[in-house]
Amino acid sequence: MGGFLVQMEGIEKHFPGVHALSGCCFELLPGEVHALIGENGAGKSTLMKILAGIYRKDGGTIKIRGKPAEAYNTKDAQTLGISIIHQELNLMKHLTAAQNIFIGRERKQGAGFLVDDREINRKTEELFKRINLNLDPRIQVASLTVAQQQMIEIAKALSFNNDVLIMDEPTSALSESEIEELFKVIRDLRAGGKGIVYISHRMDELHRICDRVTVMRDGQYIAVSKMKEITTEQIIAQMVGREIYESHHPHEDTSKNEVVLAVKGLNRGRFVRDVSFQLHKGEILGFAGLMGAGRTETMRLIFGADPMESGEILVKGKKVSAKQPKDAVRCGIGYLSEDRKRYGLALSMSVKVNTVMASLEKFLKPLGVIDEAKSRDVTIRYVKRLNTKTPNIDQLAKNLSGGNQQKVVIGKWLVRDTDILIFDEPTRGIDVGAKSEIYKLLNELADEGKGIIMISSELPEILRMSHRVAVMCEGRITAALSAEECTQEKIMYYATLRNAPGT
Questions:
Q1: In the predicted model, is pLDDT for residue 76 greater than 80?
Q2: What is the pTM of this model?
Q3: Alpha-carbon distance 35 to 239, whole Å?
Q4: Which of the residues 92, 168, 290, 304 could staple to 175 if both were Cys, CB 3.0 to 4.6 A apart?
Q5: Which of 58, 55, 63, 56 is nearest to 27 (CA)?
């Protein structure tokens, strides 16, 4: 495979109040898929952002193809042949898919200043065919789902044809079929001599696609191993410094429990078509389906984030009208969005403010003054309960890792103590240790009598957690399966059962 594409040694990085990286090292060979893993806050993304020119290192050396080099900005990184696909999407929502992919590299018409849209649309179509994405290059990004935006980020990175490609949680919003398409692209890149850094919390993916694995913990390098010579259990032990034992939570029969949420004949365009289902007290109802199946769109209608065309929503037998999210919250519905950055957090505000913001009336003294002591006590309690890694509760949400931002959003809805909780991709970007904690938490909430809807693109997660599974395809529910009859094969069958009647 030749010499190293990338060598990073003794890398240091400090943020206010945080020693993010301490003496870190990482190497990448040509024609290699190299996994970089660790718990949230371990420093993986920070290390790669230094390589990609987003952050400046405070110490250490970087060599590209054996020569000392440093990317002081993302343009420098591109010149050095380095591209990155971010975990947190970084697209301009008002532009089209093609304009996002080729921004700053547009071909002009003739000698003028007008962009040659036909040319960038043609190139984008070629990229979409390469990753088997059926999407119009002219579509505005604001109208796309998180999964579709993720695929556009992947297409954008591929468009540079660089030798080093950093993928930070590239499959976090993708379905199994979409992941397979991405893996085909990765194998082609590897065969062409490209080096790929693969950051993921999904342990099963590492053995499927990666050649070596480097483990980080608490901002430090721990070990590097050949993937074929290390087990998942050994990787996890290196990541967390402890053994994690996950016991399967038995699925009790909740079918005779009170119906806390009933949805009847919900419609909105082609994304939600005659959707009906019931959620019982103490039940975890999983929603499975491929990208664009309508799962998120359905939940947004229930939560009042989008207007419905027709249908009824009943909470504990009483018809409700949620014309906006605050109406749904008053009715006892909480919603953890799949896009935490856009809908779940006030990024420029503190962990404390984000934790109490959905329940502010609980923290008001007479004359509308916020009870700071109570706010702090509650925030500290949920930071500890969720094991959120933050220097303090006054830290801005934007300074936390993606997984810890997710925990803050979960804490917000736990403080609100709603009876119905909708979790849209709750473990997206969450590490293996924290995933186990989230699973335990969801089971505890169900045991307490909460009704929980969980959308997940990870089929093992759906099977593990759900009492029942609703499968959607093209805006319709195509099957409602009990835990006992549910298999990955059945879910995929009904997830591709087009034009099926609603059930």
A1: yes
A2: 0.61
A3: 13
A4: 290
A5: 63
